[in-house]
Amino acid sequence: MSSMVSARELEQALTEQTSFLLDTNVLIDLACNRTGFGYCASKLLGQLVEGEYWLYVCPLSLKDAYYIACKAYDEASAREFIRDLLEIVKCVPVNQDVVRSAAYSTEPDFEDGIVRACAEAQRVDYVISRDKDAFDESAVRKVDPALLASVLNNMADREHKRDDLDLDDD
Q: Over the stretch 97-120, which tens digit does the pLDDT of each residue have?
């Protein structure tokens, strides 16, 4: 059974080969710059790209983010968001097995079931999600975007301090 991962566990587990799947709510935060969440999601995405982590999305989540961004902005902006995102993430295939798994999952709704099934099919390490009720029984661990951003920031700070110490030794 999965649960929300702690900061300590996350710091110990992260490597350049760590893989993440971005949940729909995080994609919508990014696409629409949602108040209270958009900045964190944007900063986190930058950190993940800089750290060269493996990033995945469910294509149906892209569709949902696109639809909501069209309503918030316009079609051209929404489409540009999707094109830009596709430069840094990979889509997990959605097939009959994924949809069947979602239909029989214990997730609170079918959309969460699809995201969970994609994450499990791709065998990612973490689903990045703000959804408090989803993914609790998934084989893939859930991580809150704000927690992950904080952990990555702390790790970067420690790395910079080490680099500064190394420079002082020269």
A: 999 999 999 999 999 999 999 999
pTM: 0.92
Counting the structural domains of the chain, the total is 1
User: How many residues in the chain?
Assistant: 170
| Number of CB atoms found within 10 A of residue 24's CB | 23
Residue 144 DSSP one-character state: -
CB atoms within 10 A of CB 151: 21
Identify whether the C-beta of residue 139 lies closer than 8 Å to the C-beta of residue 120.
Answer: yes
Report the half-sphere exposure of 43 (CA within 13 A, side-chain side): 14
Q: Which residues pair with 56 in a beta bridge?
A: 21, 90
> Are 53 and 148 in contact, with CB atoms under 8 Å apart?
no
- What tokens were used for 147? 């927690």
Question: Which two structure tokens, joined as six digits, stand for 11?
Answer: 């710091």
**Residue 72 domain boundaries:** 15-169
